[in-house]
Design brief:
Layout (H helix, E strand, L loop, with lengths): L17 E3 L2 E3 L11 E5 L9 E4 L4 E3 L8 E7 L2 E3 L11 E4 L5 E7 L2 E4 L2 E4 L3 E3 L3 E4 L1 E4 L3 E9 L3 E3 L3 E8 L3 E13 L2 E9 L3 E24 L2 E15 L1 E15 L2 E9 L2 E4 L1 E10 L1 E4 L3 E8 L3 E3 L3 E3 L3 E2 L4 E3 L1 E4 L3 E3 L8 E4 L5 E5 L12 E6 L5 E5 L4 E3 L5 E2 L5 E8 L2 E6 L1 E2 L1
Parallel strand pairs: 10-13, 11-14, 12-15, 13-15, 14-16, 15-17, 16-18, 17-18, 18-19, 18-20, 19-20, 20-21, 21-22, 22-23, 22-24, 23-25, 24-26, 25-27, 26-28, 27-29, 27-30, 28-31, 32-34, 33-35, 34-36, 35-37, 38-41
Antiparallel strand pairs: 1-2, 3-4, 4-5, 5-6, 6-7, 8-9, 9-10, 36-40, 39-42, 40-41
Length: about 425
């Protein structure tokens, strides 16, 4: 016995099927609008379909009492895609490639491991799990509540944050990197903040803020470098470098201030101001401003443009050199940078050097400034408002090439000694 079943308004309509005997022949074709279900299944009393195949090929799943919330669809040529979450079982493995040469494997609780490269055109959000890959490229932001472990290179156009960032290769971040601890090869980021240690081959960023220890090959920052301990086998470079404990490196070339409990370098130390409550130690120490330390140990030269203050011992075979400030005008008033240096007055006519009051320029008590008359015009030392200069021989340098020394004895009191006359 055979039966024919036809679905459709006419034999020419797209909606048709044929059943002959116990078998179906022909095709079931359903034409409709995007979002329409061609096939759907419900459980008794469901108000919505549990599963439906839409006319555009999308397979959608739902709870039965609400609209579908999970889907799988063709994302492009050879691409099967979902805009929801794809979850594997406890031992599930997802393979990619014609030969299955790339695997995504569940390797533990809330952890996926990729044995190939991970390239994401959007953002990565791992909560609360981990990300483990050979290399990682993300065009936006990456947020990992667990560990981020990458064997190769990681590149983020946006920001990256995670509990622990463990990278055997290099990390490049277009935005900020925030982590509990960071271990990487070369690191380049606009800003790096870590509540724990940062270790790497090279660290480059506008701002590096480390609550723990930073141990790197070289550390380069266009902005501020801050940490508890900063140790580099190479160069430490930054606008300002501050370590609450120890700063050490092969060399430290800082355009701003260097401040640390102790500053130690096997090579050169240079900065605007160098301050160590402990030892300041280097092959050479060069400061355009002040050097302040518990002790100063230099195997080479120490060059100080400002004031040198050492509470303890100055040691080493080094020569202590001073910066010369040459003035060719007829008048000059001392500035803070003149402390510990020499002011050379070079004018053919009479000229005056003025010592300012403490309210204008607060030289530390004990500051020494040498005054040298290089020109033919006689140099007179003048006291600014409220300043007293103790000079038993007078306040004028005796002749061309004569020199004298000013020493600050009290807040507004200076002593002048040397080749001077009245």
């Amino acid at each position: 016995m055979s039966h024919d079943l036809a679905i459709g308004y006419t034999s020419g309509d797209d909606r048709k099927a044929f059943v002959t005997g116990d078998e179906m022949s022909g095709a079931l074709v359903w034409t409709g609008e995007d979002g329409d279900n061609a096939i759907e299944a419900k459980v008794t009393d469901d108000t919505h379909a549990r599963v439906g195949v839409e006319v555009d090929g999308t397979i959608a799943w739902g709870p039965g009492d609400a609209a579908a919330d999970t889907n799988l669809f063709r994302g492009g040529e050879g691409v099967l895609q979902t805009d929801r979450v794809l979850q594997l079982g406890s031992t599930g493995t997802l393979r990619f490639g014609a030969s299955g040469d790339t695997e995504l494997v569940r390797t533990g609780a809330a952890q996926l491991t990729l044995d190939g490269d991970l390239v994401v055109t959007g953002s990565v959000d791992s909560s609360p799990g981990a990300v483990d890959a050979t290399s990682l490229t993300v065009s936006e932001d990456a947020a990992v509540d667990g560990n981020l472990s990458v064997a190769g290179t990681s590149t983020f156009a946006g920001t990256v944050s995670g509990e622990d960032l463990e990278l055997d290769g290099d990390l490049t971040v277009g935005g900020a990197a925030t982590t509990t601890s960071l271990s990487t090869g070369a690191l380049a980021a606009s800003e790096v903040t870590s509540s724990g240690p940062i270790t790497g081959t090279d660290l480059v960023g506008d701002t590096l803020d480390v609550a723990g220890a930073a141990g790197v090959g070289s550390l380069v920052s266009e902005g501020v470098v801050e940490g508890t301990d900063i140790t580099a086998s190479g160069t430490v470079t930054g606008a300002d470098v501050t370590a609450t404990d120890t700063l050490s490196g092969a060399s430290a070339a800082v355009s701003g201030a260097i401040t640390a409990g102790s500053v130690s370098s096997g090579g050169a130390i240079s900065g605007t101001d160098i301050t160590g409550s402990g030892t300041v130690q280097g092959a050479t120490v060069t400061s355009t401003g002040a050097v302040n330390g518990g002790s100063l140990a230099v195997s080479g030269n120490a060059t100080v443009g400002g004031t040198l203050i050492v509470d303890g011992v100055i040691s080493g075979p080094a020569r202590l050199t001073v910066q010369a400030n040459t003035q060719t005008g007829t008048s000059y008033t001392l500035v803070l940078g003149d402390g510990g240096g020499v002011v050379e007055m070079n004018n053919s006519g009479a000229n005056t050097l003025t010592v300012p009051p403490n309210s204008s320029v607060a030289f530390p008590v004990g500051t020494i400034v040498e005054v040298y008359q290089h020109g033919a015009g006689q140099t007179t030392i003048a006291a600014g408002s409220g300043v007293t200069i103790r000079a038993p021989r007078g306040l004028k340098l005796a002749s061309q090439y004569a020199s004298a020394v000013l020493r600050k004895r009290a807040t507004n009191e200076w002593v002048l000694t040397g080749d001077v006359v009245s």
